Amino acid sequence: MMFFRVISKVVLVVLLGVAGVANAQDKQDLIMCPKLDKIHQAASLMTHTQWCKENYCVVSSSESRESGPAFYEGGLGWWLITVVAASSTDEAILKAQNIATEVSVMGSEVARYDFILSYVCTYLVTSSSHDDGRAIGILALGSDRKPQALIMQSLKKIK
Amino acid sequence: MRMLNIIISSIFSLFLSATAQAKMDEKMIACPSVDVIHRIAPLMGKADRSNGAYDVEIPVYRDNGLSWHIISVGIIAHSSEEAVVIAQNRCASVSHMVYPFARKFEKSDYVCFYYDRTLPNPFVSIYLFQNNYLTQRKNSDN
After folding, report:
1. Model-level pTM?
2. Which of A51, A73, A134 to substitute to test the interface with B, most B CBs within 10 Å?
3. Interchain pair A105, B16: CB under 8 A
4. Which helix (H) or strand (E) holds B74?
5. Which of A52, A93, A106, B76 ranks highest by number of CB atoms within 10 Å?
């Protein structure tokens, strides 16, 4: 009887291990980044602010739900997030929306998988008006996880 | 995997450096020219698979007395050999730098971005990481 208990536990552990590996492999599948026009279209959804160090983190929200993704693509919900220096939340939102409108270069065509943030894509502003020694852009976070948890995790990481 | 983490953390740091960067005048370093990127294209040769795609790199390249880590990420290819060819083509066809000066990120590292403007949705083809810049600068000052 003892022998069977040990065997069943071993089998369970092996199954959980296999499931974990399979899940990890799934997470590292090829995920393409949303195109630039998707980011431009979602710029007006950059409306949530949170104080991050000496700057504001500005996060998108969906039209229907406060913490919902800005859009869905490739089976994932996508949130936009950026960090801006501003003197008020209104200014931070305006700056973030302008950045989201003006990004013109993608960091990569392929999303990078991050264990905390899920899939991450970057978009950069190249215009000379922003070229004052700073790298300016937007992060798009793609996830199938609960939105609030994702946003909180991403903000924690940025902080 | 390590490079992936470096890239992600660097991007966060780039964004987080929004206020600090205004004070980086004395530390500004020019990114290697597009011509330099074209010249080093044949040297792209080390491919690693991650995220269902390939990253191809030159671990160390020296330009203007500085040491750069050059990488092309997210290459969709059927083999590492094909990925290397694509990376070499990317290097050979970059037409623009995102910024003329390297952007500082975590722990004294800087990064330059290059892309090909002829593509319909320009994406960064090549990243250059300039490692330990401050350490090198300090040593050269001494």
Report:
1. 0.75
2. A134
3. no
4. strand B66-75
5. A106
